[in-house]
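Most newcomers find our protein records easier to grasp once they have seen one. Sequence and backbone structure share a record, each on its own labelled line. Nothing more is needed to start thinking about how sequence determines fold. As an example, a complete record with its sequence and its structure tokens follows.
=====
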Amino acid sequence: MNDILSKLERKIARVAIPNLTMKLIICYVIGYVIYYIPGLKGILNYMTLDAYQILHGQVWRLVSWVLMPPMTSNLFFTIITLVFYYSIGTTMERVWGDARYNLYILSGLLFTVLGEFITAGLMMVIYPTSATPANFAAIATNFSIYYVNMSILLAFAATFPDNVILFMFFIPLKMKWLGVIYGLWLAAEALISLLGGSFWNFFPIAASLLNFVVFWFAGGRGIHARPSEIRRRREFRREVRRSESAHMTPKGIARHKCAICGQTELDNPNLEFRFCSKCNGNYEYCNEHLFTHQHKT
């Protein structure tokens, strides 16, 4: 699967959109402007990802739904959310590169579109008497780019698990725990929707989670979550401390240095370092960049 993702990255590299996070934020802002300006709000009804209307000729909805913002009456919360997602999105662009980040966002959008059409199909099969244009339009409001953004948060939390943010502006919280909270919350919401028969709420969430699973675990990065890997890392740290004690490394001199970010064990004692077997040369990387760097040839 990792080879497939690498091939897709190479194919999309030439047409990858730079600063994609900023462009997505601009789409959000346009959607909110339309929502808050009196007389324009009705336009949003013609921009939703409505499978019924798409199949009846309104094909622009395949693109225009990206402008649909999550509806909220709290403008302050909206601004804070946009700033937060701009921060983590631009960071992921720098770490992954434009090609992988574009592919991640594009796959999230495609999974969401597929989820809408599956939802519409199930609606016609399970509830044929309720398969009306009005009900299809109501279902379409559940499909926005909100859950795609949630998948960005999950990817960021998995990439930088030890980064600390101020949750609710005053509670210091590591990203890995925020990612766990969001992931469990999304999974619970999806499961409750599915068990309750509200599959139109299930598929938007499932699309974002599937996007994260495909890219993270299929790409080899999920190895950090395996119990055997956690145990191996713990043993490795124990051996490193024992080795450093035996060799009496002079204080202030680093033994390891990441070829990407330049961090050493002196900068962050929680970092681990590995040499990449696929790189041509002795290049050492920290655990944050071991699986995300471009191989040296």
Summary: The chain has two domains: 2-223, 226-286. Residues 226-286 form one domain. The two ends are 22 Å apart (CA to CA). Residues 222-227 have pLDDT under 50 and may be disordered.
